[in-house]
Specification:
It is built from eleven helices and 13 strands. By secondary structure, the protein is of the alpha/beta class. Strand 9 (150-151) and strand 10 (154-155) form a beta hairpin.
């Protein structure tokens, strides 16, 4: 790249003062000077803004009046950011030298690509992928997400097996590089999702508009994870189950959606029973509350839109990841019958 394009790294913060103190210095150190760094505070009450003013006076801050969730917070923040490329970065992300340039270069060289993500490893076990995105995300036709390097709770060791850049279904919101034009043109995140899977919904819509989504393994970042909601939190269980159902209802054509929703309900029932047997009563109840919310909002989610037609992108996994993983023992992404393609030249 002869001249670095106009880029902004935007970190959404909610009561993450200690995370900012720990990770923001590294972001500042390893981000090119031409790139604006913005922290958007989502109505924190832990004196995050005071911390930023004291320790990071050169970082631009955007103060939102309350917690709008991941989707609403970023929508409001990005309206106040002037850039060609947005970099959405979690506050608990460790970055290294030249973490940003490969992803921006990929977007610059491939105008058909709307968004991409770096390879994400675990900060706690640095040789392994991290749950939230790993080496690029996919979703099956029942609405269950998985990644190159992570299927359900099975995390792979990074041995270079996914080091070739290729198309994926979704790029994680934990470290998403996205064209501002594409983000704005798609209407941003759907704020009804609040948090979790809003980036999958956005990537589905972007693909229906003709864009591709990519992984960029030349860039590597390390994610702490669990900064807002830990994996065992019933609220997170509720949002994941509800939002994956909304994902299908909103984006899948009727001829595909209706035959699959009954199977999906049955699979969720098995998951709720498993939670119950394991002694996680609140998680079990969260699944049923998610179904109730899905039923209540069903008509609104199925409402057709001329701007966002319902269609199946070619990167949608046509098999059941549940069956592949639990019945057929396909524990690694490389075991699946899915080959991510490389970008067009």
């Amino acid at each position: 790249m002869k001249q670095f394009p106009q880029t902004a790294v935007v970190i959404l913060n909610w009561n993450g003062k200690e995370l900012l103190k720990r990770f923001l210095p590294g972001v500042i150190k390893h981000t090119p000077r031409e790139v604006e760094i913005v922290v958007a505070d989502n109505g924190s009450h832990d004196r995050s803004l005071e911390c930023l003013a004291k320790h990071f006076p050169l970082v631009r801050t955007i103060s939102l009046e309350k917690n709008h969730g991941f989707a609403g917070g970023y929508n409001r923040a990005l309206r106040q950011v002037d850039a060609d490329y947005y970099v959405l970065l979690n506050s608990d992300m460790e970055v290294g030298e030249h973490w940003l340039e490969p992803c921006i270069e990929l977007l610059e060289n491939h105008p058909e690509v709307a968004a991409c993500q770096p390879k994400i490893r675990s900060l706690k076990e640095r040789a392994y992928f991290e749950h939230a995105g790993a080496a690029g995300g996919f979703v099956d036709h029942f609405g269950f997400p998985f990644c190159k390097g992570r299927i359900f709770s099975g995390i792979e060791r990074d041995e270079g097996q996914y080091d070739v850049a290729g198309r994926v279904f979704w790029a994680t919101g934990a470290a998403m590089f996205i064209r501002a034009e594409a983000f704005i043109g798609a209407g941003g995140f759907d704020e009804r999702f609040f948090a979790h899977m809003e980036e999958i919904d956005l990537c589905w819509r972007l693909q229906n508009s003709g864009y591709h989504i990519m992984s960029c393994p030349r860039s590597v970042v390390y994610h702490l994870g669990g900064g807002s909601l830990p994996a065992s939190n019933p609220r997170k269980t509720y949002l994941n189950f509800r939002n994956s159902l909304w994902l299908l209802a909103k984006n899948m054509p009727a001829r595909h959606f209706y035959p699959r929703i009954a199977v999906r309900f049955a699979l969720d029932g098995i998951a709720a029973l498993k939670f119950l047997i394991q002694g996680h009563m609140q998680d079990s109840l969260a699944v049923f509350r998610a179904h109730l919310a899905f039923i209540q909002q069903f008509r609104k989610m199925r409402k057709p839109s001329r701007e966002q037609p319902k269609a199946l992108p070619d990167m949608l996994y046509k098999r059941s990841i549940v069956a592949d993983y639990f019945l057929f023992g396909r524990k690694n992404f490389s075991d699946l019958r899915l080959k991510a393609s490389t970008p067009s030249k």
